[in-house]
Automatic annotation (TrEMBL):
Protein name: D19L3 mannosyltransferase
Membrane topology: Multi-pass membrane protein
Gene name tied to this protein: Dpy19l3
Keyword Transmembrane: yes
Organism: Heliornis fulica
Intracellular or extracellular location(s): Membrane
């Protein structure tokens, strides 16, 4: 098991504040005073410099934490590779494979015709996995004159840490665009850094797909926020649409869960469009961009069927069809429009399900069925004995968001501010939505219209629904909290620096004046920044001063033994998390791996995991040999697992799936029966003749037991 230990000493623009303020700086002839132009230019320049500086500081910060936690610069190459745990190691192995290939063409050929990731099968890695970033980075490393100065692993991790700068700058810019002041962006960035435990995990899961994708997702949100501003010039609109497309494409290319995140985004656009809170033309363009980006990724991934069968493509196509049919959706009185709206929603949902069912039927697609089984069981639509669904249900990362998350977010004041802003904006959104439905002939009211006391700009409306939907996702699934918490920083800082929010608040308590609003929107954020700096700066300094060291001697011994004592063509079976490290450190062939988005692989993994079930040695031997296995690795941490409670241990999931009674005290379902055989991983260690005829132990330490399979004729 990989751990860290205490390190031993001595080892070798500001843009215009809001629309009215822009108008106040304009002369009667329509020209902006030269003094105002100069001030705006200086403010934008200063805001931009602060954004870039904060982005770079964040990159240095997470890189330093990574170095201090592992002493990465001092450990051996095998230890560095072991530190890329589980699926991280699998993804990094393809970067390493491309670097070590004789040529770029040979490296690409090895990925397209890969026979080492899954034994007795040849698969296309570029189709199955989102590893184009590793391909691009390896090619870049080969063609740049940096090999003598920078190891491949450092080029890789520095790129990921560099993307954190892009991430923070995008969050900063989004908040700035929403509020009109770069002070809001500064506060968003500071909250992102001080809430690092809940906003990113890049420093200890570097190659994880989300660490590549989320910076591009943040850029996309910033571009959408700018696109939804009013009075954009046609050239500005076209350039912004191009930026949205590029960011959406890069996000889709780098993460296999892209379609689910963009489906939530499409739902946000759909809700706002139904209530006439966004320009319909821009919403339609965003739907088309999502489909186009995903189809382009589909082509690059050799027509990956999981993308073609995604709900996102079916939903977006259904919305476009429904809008073509229902052209007068936004005309009529309240009851008339509500009736049309309900019909529109039903039409879209029915079309989505029909199109998706048709595509999956044509393509015979079952790659994502485990996700829907998991969701069905998670939200209480019936218990399941499905091994794959239970494997997700029992993982903490796929459980509900822990309550201590809110405690940490409260310490930085982020949660309190977020709830305050969310409440006010939600009330404003409900009022605006009702007004839009009640009077379809009314032109979108502006702040200067005396009749309208509550307004909500399109960019703010989008970010409101975005944060609500992704908040629901995070609350239900802890692993997805990073999509929400980073946007929390943006949304809370925007509200704290927003003229509209404070204007609405002060009007509610009958204290509104423009001067008071102006003072509050700057003083409160500055006080908040001072509080954050005072409370958290010492802790950050202590964190940067703490030195630890990577320590996992058992895994290092295992990898060194495999490299020295087994042929390069040997096939290894074991847990999918460990085998990812085996592939990276030794280059040996695997029977299974952690990239779970394939039905055949899921069935294969369940079969391989019978080594931890109550099965006869003959059954286990037959299963392993069917996948060409030469060696099997057993882990005590799985065989005698205590991390999960009874019913969620891997051996329990296997027993339930096999119809066997679970070990230990506790209830069992009435139809479960005792197994005829003892647990394989325990019994094999007794060296009984029925086991030694098939398996010979060739390596052992405190954590791992490696057995070689006999080759019977």
């Amino acid at each position: 098991m990989t751990t860290v230990r205490q390190r031993r000493v001595g080892k070798g623009t500001e843009a215009a504040e809001d629309q009215p303020s822009e108008e106040r700086n304009v002369k009667p002839d329509g020209k902006v005073p030269s003094g105002g132009k100069l001030w705006n230019l200086l403010s934008v320049t200063l805001g931009g410099i602060i954004a870039i500086s904060l982005g770079l500081l964040t990159s240095v910060y997470v890189a330093t934490l990574h170095e201090n936690d592992l002493w990465f610069s001092n450990i051996k190459e095998v230890e560095r590779e072991i530190s890329f745990r589980t699926e991280c190691g699998l993804y990094y192995s393809y970067y390493k494979q491309m670097i070590q290939a004789a040529s770029i063409q040979q490296g690409l050929h090895g990925l397209v015709y890969d026979n080492k990731t899954e034994s007795v099968r040849t698969i296309n890695i570029l189709e199955r996995m989102n590893v184009y970033q590793e391909v691009f980075l390896s090619i870049l490393y080969r063609i740049l004159p940096i090999q003598q100065y920078l190891d491949p692993v450092y080029f890789y991790i520095y790129t990921l840490f560099g993307l954190q700068a892009v991430y923070v700058i995008a969050l900063y810019v989004t908040s700035w665009l929403l509020s009109g002041t770069w002070l809001s962006g500064l506060l968003a960035a500071c909250w992102y850094i001080t809430n690092r435990i809940d906003t990113t995990r890049v420093e200890f899961t570097i190659p994880l797909r989300e660490n590549w994708a989320l910076p591009f997702f943040a850029v996309q949100i910033a571009a959408i926020t700018y696109l939804l501003r009013t009075h954009l010039q046609p050239v500005q609109e076209r350039l912004t649409l191009m930026a949205v497309f590029i960011a959406t494409f890069l996000f889709s290319l780098t993460w296999q869960f892209n379609q689910f995140m963009m489906l939530i985004q499409a739902l946000a656009l759909f809700i706002l469009d139904c209530f006439n809170m966004l320009p319909t033309a821009k919403v339609m363009w965003l739907y088309i961009i999502q489909i186009s980006a995903l189809l382009l990724v589909c082509v690059l991934q050799f027509f990956n069927s999981m993308i073609l069968g995604s709900l996102l493509i079916s939903f977006n196509a259904s919305v476009l069809i429904a809008r073509t049919i229902q052209k007068n959706l936004k005309k009529g009185g309240l009851l008339n429009r509500l009736g049309k709206l309900i019909l529109h929603v039903l039409l879209v949902l029915c079309c989505t399900l029909l199109i998706n069912k048709f595509i999956k039927k044509i393509l015979n697609l079952e790659s994502d069925e485990h996700i829907f089984k998991f969701l069905k069981a998670k939200f209480g639509f019936g218990a399941t004995r499905d091994f794959d669904a239970n494997l997700y249900l029992c993982e903490e990362a796929f459980g509900l968001l822990p309550l201590n998350t809110f405690s940490r977010l409260s310490d930085t004041l982020l949660l309190y501010v977020y709830i305050f802003v969310l409440f006010l904006m939600t009330v404003a959104a409900l009022i605006v939505a009702f007004r839009n439905l009640s009077d379809s002939d009314q032109v979108q009211c502006m702040e200067e219209t005396e009749e309208c006391t509550v307004t909500l700009k399109p960019d703010a409306a989008y970010n409101l629904i975005h944060t609500v939907l992704f908040g629901c996702l995070a609350l239900s699934t802890m692993r997805m909290k990073y999509l929400w918490t980073s946007h929390m920083c943006v949304f809370a800082s925007f509200g704290l620096c927003s003229t509209e929010v404070w204007k609405l608040t002060l009007k509610c308590i009958h204290l509104y004046t423009s001067q008071r609003t102006h003072v509050i929107k700057y003083s409160i954020p500055i006080i908040t920044l001072l509080y954050i700096s005072y409370k958290f700066w010492p802790g950050i300094m202590d964190e940067l001063a703490e030195l630890r060291e990577f320590y996992d001697p058992d895994t290092v011994d295992l990898m060194n033994w495999i490299k020295s004592n087994t042929p390069s063509t040997a096939v290894f079976a074991g847990s999918m998390q460990l085998l990812a490290g085996v592939k990276l450190c030794t280059g040996r062939t695997l029977t299974n791996h952690p990239h779970y988005e394939d039905k055949n692989l899921r069935e294969r993994t369940k079969q391989i995991y019978q080594i931890y079930a109550k099965r006869s040695p003959e059954d286990v031997y037959r299963i392993l040999r069917a996948f060409g296995t030469d060696y099997v690795i057993l882990e005590d941490s799985i065989c005698y697992e205590r991390r999960h409670s009874r019913g969620c241990r891997l051996r329990d999931l296997l027993d339930i799936a096999n119809g066997h009674i679970m070990d230990g005290l506790g209830e069992n379902e009435p139809d479960l029966k005792p197994s005829l055989y003892p647990r394989f991983c325990e019994e094999i260690k007794k060296n009984l003749p029925s086991y030694t005829i098939h398996f010979t132990r060739v390596f052992q330490n405190k954590t791992f037991h490696v057995y070689k399979l006999a080759k019977h004729k």
